[in-house]
Amino acid sequence: MDDLITKKEMLIKSKILKRAKYSGEIDEDEKRFLIPDNWVWARASDIYDIRDGTHDSPKYQDNGLPLVTSKNIYSGKLDLTNVKYISDEDHAKISERSKVDKDDILFAMIGSIGNPVIIDIDPIFSVKNVGLFKYYDRSQSVPEFLLLFLKLAAVWMKEEASGAVQSFVSLGQLRSIPIPLPPLEEQKRIVAKVDELMALCDKLEVQQQQQANNVLRANTAAINALLNPEPQQTTKSQKTSATVSVSETKASFEQNWKRIAQHFNTLYGCTLPMPDGEGRKKKHLVGLENVKALRQVITTLALMGKLVSQDKNDDTALTLLNKIALEKDKLVDNGLIKNGKPLIPIDLSEQSFDLPASWEWTRLHEIMAVVTDGDHQAPPKANTGIPFLVIGNLNQGKINRENCRFVPNEYYEKLNWSRKPTKKDILYTVTGSYGIPIMIDVSYDFCVQRHVAILKSSKSTPDQYINLVLRSKYAFDYASNIATGIAQKTVPLTGLRNMPIPIPPEAEQKRIVVKVDQLMNLCDQLEQQLTQSYSDAEKLMQATVQSLVA
């Protein structure tokens, strides 16, 4: 410290430096932690020559010498690929005040404060509004130690940053910040130890990401095997896959499900962050991602008839479809709906998977009383009256009347029966945030805009099961494939009506809905436990770090 002060005074007497404004003694409350007896607290300007480049905007040109700003410093790197250029004369003028030399450190003062970077090239550029840390005596300084400190100081400065539009740190703040200064040789040992530990952290992070990827791949493979079971074959002489029995395929399915059960905690209890660091930043864990996939496979298995067992005593799905057809005939007779177009048979190419013998494939409009949408004419506005719901009131998967518009009662009364949603009907968003079903569980009157499909139920329509189907990946993929438009996708009403729906017998539908609810509740619990475990681990880590630095 004495050597640096002596060197600084020599530079001032030689008029190489100007004496900076004195920042005063360091108060006890400025010392953020205790330091060893052979360390000292010092103002940054006592140890380093700190400048900030030009404050003016030179005349830019198509080529010349780069002018570096805070935008060119991020993630610990200096990026010269997107800079503005200035003339040799302007560069020379700026360098009189803030010449950049090798081993100097740049520090972003505007916007994303910090991102310190050591200049490891022969610099031929100028800086503008960028902190420039230079050395009174390079032989008495360890740039890598200063870099470590500035990374920590950046956190403090961001908390104290001023500026109404963007974060800003002044040159005075940089010069006055207290720095804990160890002896020179200890600085070198600290840098070496930090490098060693960071290399270990990098190695651990790579191993962690590999483990996370392995768990994700294992879950994907297990789910694919579950959805597409290969028949059990133990020898080459056994039957080919084209002639195997249903019982063999069922045995393979059961074995794959058992395999998932055996490794359930590994697959769905994994608290590792998602690979590439995204998980830690967003608190998105591998286990949460796998539970999300598990939700999808539960619904898919339900639609394939593999979630609950079939009962030979159940009526067939055809019985239910015939009952709904009779109910729709009565609605036609009463003038509530029109006769639909002739049924388009569902060919094999539309059947995404095989169904049990008691099930049927049918179109969505055959299982509903009618599939329509909101009024295509702009409705009159009113301050009170009947709620008029738009996509924004529905895009969370439930009805939200907050900030909803209203239409006059007279307008609502003139709407057709099919455009008056009621309890047990299903709403389905078809524009923008498309593919979101909303099971109506409210009793008050309301109407919807044209971008929302209304799926009116008949008396026997299995509304809960249909809602389950529409929430599935199968239904969303179908909607995505038929959606039109570029900037804003829209699901055509005709395409929605023709969506192939796998229909089980009525009694089996009820068992499916109950089982899916049970398993989804289990998924909810898994997610809560994962989130809590990760939160507890974070708190433990923070407490450990605090005890280490206390």
Automatic annotation (TrEMBL):
The keyword Cell membrane does not apply. Residues 36-212, 359-532 form the Type I restriction modification DNA specificity domain. GO terms for molecular function: DNA binding. Gene3D superfamilies: DNA methylase specificity domains. GO terms for biological process: DNA restriction-modification system. Keywords: Coiled coil, DNA-binding, Restriction system. The lineage of its organism: Bacteria, Pseudomonadati, Pseudomonadota, Gammaproteobacteria, Methylococcales. It comes from Methyloprofundus sedimenti. Transmembrane segments: none annotated. Belongs to the type-I restriction system S methylase family. CDD domains: RMtype1_S_SonII-TRD2-CR2_like. This is Type I restriction modification DNA specificity domain-containing protein.
